Amino acid sequence: MAEGGTGEEMGEQDLAEGQIPITALQEHFSVSFTRMIAYAAGCSIKTHETDFEGVDITIVSSTEYRGFYGPQFELQLKCTYQESLLKDDSMTWKMKAKPFRKLTRAKRYIPAYLGVLLIPREPEPWLHINEYGLYTRSRMFWESADNLRYDGPINDYHTVHLPRRNLFTGEQLLGIMKSIGDAERGLR
Q: What range(s) does the DUF4365 domain occupy (predicted)?
């Protein structure tokens, strides 16, 4: 889930205070970030014991829409501090071939999405807390697995592009739920 290093072996610099690997902190932070957005939008989260199916969590609405009651979608989460991945019009992400194929399977029963959380690089804190609230410079970009699908050959990795307009906010989350709940084609 979390990726942000250089691909080298983990060393002492990759451990946070308390000896927790940075990648583990990134995983938990991305889930917590997603939970805050989902809960603030009135949705709930179903967790998965493993991400064997290529997803980390399922986000569920309890709203009745034109086509369905209680739409839901599965979300594969990634986390990075690599600001260089943010381009003018998209966030680029290099996915390993096997997870990419799992996420973009055409026969998925529940729609799937990819979310990449961009966090500040150390030593800047991921959160700022004061008497006025909780703030973070982190932001997540998303894309539907249907829009990521690629039928060409993939060796070890496949680069995907998550449009910058797809900023994971409560408003956009509810828009995803509405498109699924209304059974709108192509916007699943």
A: 27-178
Nearest-5° Cα angle at 67, 63 to 70: 30
Answer for the pair 141, 115: CB distance below 8 angstroms, yes or no.
yes
The arrangement of secondary structure in 18-181, i.e. its CATH architecture, is 3-Layer(aba) Sandwich (3.40)
Measured CA distances, 33 to 13, 123, 139 (Å): 24, 19, 9
Q: What is the CA radius of gyration of the chain?
A: 17
What would the 3-class secondary structure string for 55-82 be?
CCEEEECCCECCCCECCEEEEEEEEECC
Q: How confident is the model over 86-97, as pLDDT tens digits?
A: 999 999 999 999
The pairs formed by 12-19 with CB atoms below 8 angstroms and a separation of 24 or more are none
Beta strands across the sheet bearing 72-80: 44-47, 57-60, 72-80, 112-118, 139-144
The structural domains of the chain, with segments of one domain joined by +, span 18-181
Under a CB-based contact definition with an 8 Å cutoff, are residues 112 and 143 in contact? no
Amino acid letter, 106: A
With beta carbons less than 8 A apart as the criterion, state whether 174 and 129 touch.
Answer: no
